[in-house]
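Bit of a strange request maybe. I'm writing a small parser for structure token strings and I need a real example to test against, not something I typed by hand. Could someone generate the tokens for this chain?
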Amino acid sequence: MRTASLVFIAAAIAAGQTARTESPVLVQKVEPEYTDTARQAGVSGTVLLSAVIGEDGRAHDVRVLRNLGYGLDAKAIDAVRKWRFRPGMKNGVVVNTAASIEVRFGHTDNSQGVIHN
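Reply from user aminoacidic:
Good idea to test on real output. This should exercise your parser:
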């Protein structure tokens, strides 16, 4: 049976001078649903999303950068909108943070929240 795995990659928004930044940390995730159509077609792969992790710890303005089709793009967006994060910080102040998020659909489950600056 196929499962979905999730990897989070973020980059803090830096402006002007060098600043001490901390990336958001994934604290709660929801696994995306695998669609019947994708399962029947034997589809696996990665949906690449862009989002802004807000000061409220939620993903906002979630958009598809690389699609997979078979209804999996919508399932990836639905799941990421339910994720919760500890927001990013800049010089000790909570800030909105631009993020690229990979949602992987495939045979294995190595789901973890990994954040890279």
